[in-house]
């Protein structure tokens, strides 16, 4: 069974609470484990029911962490807080299941990231998506960031709540989304249109964002229903994709 390494207190706690994960082993120095129990009393009983490996010093912990990183194929960098969780990956989710939901339920919220390869950006988008109650985030399986320990840390627990689908053909996904009656909206600084979120209410909505340099690829652009821009009020015309995604979600998924 494939393994995830979870770092960052919020992410560790949410992963411990996630019943979809199994084979949980908490590894850390004694003081870090005590602090986790103290700060998050809701996971005390869970920790008592799983394997806990207490290491004798911060230095030894980092050595153990480095070995685990290498075993799982990730480049090691010092783990903050001297604590991590090793556990099974979340079970694979078929994109067909999402399409089945779109056939039956309206007002689904989906984010699509095209050519977003920076794991910090992807994780930050995932965290914001969880805040706005997004149902799914779709990423290209071959060109986007993997689920590294740093990804989980930056996502701050959102990976346990927002379904992520890594697929090989984003343009085909968007085409199918449109066929099922959804509305796909791309964001580009070159678009002339603005938005009126009221006219999108009640529909399954897909927000499509590209990376900062290339934007949305031509293949994906051809499938997007419409493009809008986030209007600048200053001299800078573009935003970091994670910030743009947050603004886009507020406009379309916010309460106002």
Structure description:
The protein has 256 residues and is α/β, with parallel strands linked by helices. The protein folds into two domains: 3-88, 60s Ribosomal Protein L30, Chain: A; 95-253, SPOUT methyltransferase, trefoil knot domain (Alpha/beta knot, 3-Layer(aba) Sandwich). Helices cover 38% and strands 20% of the residues. The chain is built from ten helices and ten strands. It has a six-stranded parallel β-sheet with strand order 7-6-5-9-8-10, sandwiched between helices. It has a four-stranded mixed β-sheet with strand order 1-4-2-3. Strand 5, helix 6 and strand 6 form a beta-alpha-beta unit. Helix 1 packs across helix 7 (149-155), helix 6 (119-131) packs parallel to helix 7 (149-155) and helix 6 runs parallel beside helix 10 (241-253). The longest helix is centred in the N-terminal third of the chain and has 15 residues, at 58-72.
Could you provide a short overview of the structure?
This protein has 2 domains: 3-88, 2-Layer Sandwich (60s Ribosomal Protein L30, Chain: A), CATH 3.30.1330; 95-253, Alpha/beta knot (3-Layer(aba) Sandwich). The protein contains 10 helices and 10 strands.
Topology:
Elements: E1 3-6, H1 9-17, E2 25-29, H2 30-39, H3 44-49, E3 51-55, H4 58-72, E4 83-88, H5 95-104, E5 109-114, H6 119-131, E6 136-140, H7 149-155, E7 163-167, H8 170-179, E8 183-187, E9 205-210, H9 218-221, E10 226-228, H10 241-253
Parallel strand pairs: 2-3, 5-6, 5-9, 6-7, 8-9, 8-10
Antiparallel strand pairs: 1-4, 2-4
Helix pairs in contact: 1-7, 6-7, 6-10
